[in-house]
Amino acid sequence: MTQHTTQPRIVILGGGYAGVSAAVRLGGTSANVVLVNKHSYHHLTTLLHQPAVGRRGYTDLSVGLREVLPSCVDLVRGRVMAITPEQKSVTVKTRQGEKQLTYDYLVLALGWEAEFYQIPGLREHALTLEDLNTSRLTKDRIEEALIAFDENPEQGWRRSIVIGGGGLSGVELAGELADSRQKFATAFDLKPEDISIHLVDGAPGLLHGLDPWLSQETTAYLTARGVQVHSGTRISQVKDRAVVFENGNTLEAGTVIWTGGVRANRLVERAGFAGNRQGRAEVDAFLRSKAYPEVFIIGDCALVNDAQGNPLPPTAQLAVQQGVWTARNLRRVIKGKALQPYKAVTRGIVLSIGRRYALGVVNGYRISGVPAGMLKDAIAYKYLFSIGGPLLTLKKWWSWAAYASAMRRS
Ligand SMILES: Cc1cc2nc3c(=O)[nH]c(=O)nc-3n(C[C@H](O)[C@H](O)[C@H](O)COP(=O)(O)OP(=O)(O)OC[C@H]3O[C@@H](n4cnc5c(N)ncnc54)[C@H](O)[C@@H]3O)c2cc1C
Known about the structure:
Bound molecules: flavin-adenine dinucleotide
Number of strands: 25
Distance between the termini: 61 Å
CATH architecture of the largest domain: 3-Layer(bba) Sandwich
Radius of gyration: 22 Å
CATH topology of the largest domain: FAD/NAD(P)-binding domain
């Protein structure tokens, strides 16, 4: 590795967990750093199920990028349209028109998008939880359906909410919905039992691939709170007012929310970096593209294996780690030092099932109830602290507490 004599240009694509974690750690280097993101804010994806039922405000989940980026990092607000690694260039559509950004090093952190598996009607009729806007649309759709049911009680399908996908986001959303059922019922002059919540998953149990204890506890908790869990049930079609299963059964649905499939941002594949079936790109030990070593690919776009060679699941936890690691390696590159290989550290998982219950497996220990809930909150605050220091953490703590207290009073 030779030291750069001119200012290297680093372009980071994506202001999510991975991209922001890298960008905030590149201040004070001799590099010229640019972050490109669709929005002027970073949104906390892991909490998107909460504004979808009104537990938090939308703005509570956004962090202004300028608020956390070092002053020497330029922000380009725009949509990445194409990446051309042969020419080391990126095409970005901004409000001022199309721009070509060239780079010496690229950090590709464009995250994930929903995968619809070509299930007929799914893309057309189902909502997804991808960003603040889709979270808002979900709440709007649920409310519209319930208002319409109140006015037209013969239109029974409107009171039924179906979540397709019993992974992390599906069960967290089901838990929030179960907790909000009373609030929705009061708001639209219905009985709580008028609103039915279904969680459908093709795997034999919820949270497939995680500790079976999590699956059992989650299923028991959701069932006790009135969520109808349909495990081992694959959706074969989604219609205007119903979901059709592979076994031929049909379930009426006024609102369908799809959390059952994610894949890497399609731009990864289009740029020629594709790796596995979910479009996640294969990377070397330093998280770089094997064909283009000046391109670092991190977060949900990257296919990273554990020590046994099994692909690690796409999580915010790993996206943050990879962002931090890549910033460290880029600092080494700038100084002409050798890169250090990335080692994933997976500490476990904590999930909240509604506002009253959380559970998880951390460092091999199973936790549930109040300690798990506190840990879940601590993880969110620790992350905010890591990108925005005490000021951002206090600001969010204050606004989250104020929103929760306003909700309790309403
Ligand atoms: C409801 C829900 C709950 C979850 N819960 C957990 C959890 O409890 N724990 C956990 O570890 N993980 C959880 N996850 C998964 C976690 O959110 C993802 O793994 C994580 O967001 C990946 O981070 P990332 O930086 O790779 O991508 P993202 O956070 O998705 O960031 C990608 C960024 O790129 C931007 N972008 C995308 N396309 C373009 C474009 N064309 N041009 C410009 N910008 C673009 C996006 O706006 C976004 O800012 C959850 C996910 C969901 C949906």
